[in-house]
Amino acid sequence: MIDLGCGPGLFLRDLGERYPQATLYGYDVTPAMVAYGQQLPCTGAKPTLTVHDVATQPLPHAPVTVHLLSMSSVLHVLDEPLPVLAEIRRVLAPGGLFMLHDWIRHPLQVYLEGRVERMGESRAEALRGGFRLFPVHNKYTTEDWQWLLGEAGLPIRSQTQLRPSHQIFVTTGC
Ligand SMILES: C[S@@+](CC[C@H](N)C(=O)[O-])C[C@H]1O[C@@H](n2cnc3c(N)ncnc32)[C@H](O)[C@@H]1O
């Protein structure tokens, strides 16, 4: 199981508790995230966290070997998502799952209020940082993500929305 753009590896830590037999890899371009995650205690399978730029480097995994690949709030950041999705498709095992969890376009008012309610920012902070990040986080609609996944040959098996700002898509590799 792989988490791309894993940050400090908290999702992998939780996966390792539920699936102690799993082999877990996390990749992130920010060395401080990886260094912090490497020293966090974990009670399940210990993830291997590595500094890695998914936008410029192939994944260090053989084709069709990965059973679960997740990417949470990362793909919208990358200038060119399709080469990254092609790399994900290359490594997915038959029946392997790709779980994409990412921002979707939503109204400015809902976005700014969400920064206060869910991210704990003050109204002043939400207004200051929110206007800068609004275009970054509101890049793709749900339909845009559906189209991108289709273009990449990753058919959607399931999708759901747990909060107004994000959508979850579960796809297979073939
Ligand atoms: C918003 S954080 C999400 C972290 C984690 N996935 C989560 O949901 O908590 C985005 C992460 O993507 C990482 N990232 C951004 N560009 C990347 C790239 N080209 N390759 C690998 N990681 C990248 C950042 O360093 C950051 O840790």
Explain the overall architecture.
The protein is of the alpha/beta class. The chain has helices at 10-18, 31-38, 81-91, 108-117, 123-137, 142-151; strands at 2-4, 25-28, 48-51, 66-72, 92-103, 156-163, 166-172. The protein has a seven-stranded mixed beta sheet with strand order 3-2-1-4-5-7-6, sandwiched between helices. Helix 1 (10-18) links the parallel strand 1 (2-4) and strand 2. Helix 4 (108-117) packs across helix 5 (123-137). The two termini are 17 Å apart. The site of S-adenosylmethionine has 16 residues, from strand 2.
Considering DSSP H and I runs of 4 or more, what fraction of the residues is helical?
Answer: 25-40%
Structural class: alpha/beta
Q: What is the number of beta strands? A: 7
Q: What is the average of the pLDDT values?
A: 96
The low-pLDDT segments are none
Task: Describe the oligomeric state of these chains in a short phrase.
Answer: single chain
**Biggest pleated sheet:** 7 strands, mixed
Beta percentage is 25-35%
Gross geometry: globular
Bound molecules: S-adenosylmethionine
Give the distance, in angstroms, between the N- and C-terminal Cα atoms: 17 Å
Spatial strand sequence of the major β-sheet: 3-2-1-4-5-7-6
> What is the N-to-C order of secondary-structure elements (H for helix, E for strand)?
EHEHEEHEHHHEE
Number of helices: 6
Radius of gyration over all CA atoms, rounded: 17 Å
